[in-house]
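[09:14] KT: can someone run the structure on this one? pasting the chain below
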Amino acid sequence: MDKEYSFYGWQAADIRDSQGRTPRDYYDLLSGVWCAETCAPRMRGEWSPGNRTLGQCSITAFLMQDLFGGKVLGVPLGDGNFHCFNVVGDCVFDLTSEQFGGRMLDYGNCPEQKRELHFGKAEKKQRYELLKEKLTKVCAGLA
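[09:31] RB: done, structure tokens below
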């Protein structure tokens, strides 16, 4: 492992999906895919290429769950919202943690997040489908 990353859990993110990719590989792929269209609408005005993980947490975490299994948990943010991340066995990773800058989140004792609840919002389901489509194209070398 020559490259260093800034997302939470990157050092131990050695699990592999059916294609042999790790969460670090997906971070690299998603870095060229995350965009204002996939950002949560309430955060779009603040989204920029310099903070590309902003507003991408739940759709990214559920997409990683599709690939690696495990659970999606959520750090309570104190405003009724949760910041989603992945737990697969002993591997805990948060591909979108960089959006918080230097703020450390407490990843302990976080509640499980249910896809059905998150995707009850049509816009979130649409953003997830868009992110999935973009990632699929990049993985296939079509983008």
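[09:33] KT: thanks! The mean pLDDT is 94.
[09:34] RB: yep, looked fine to me
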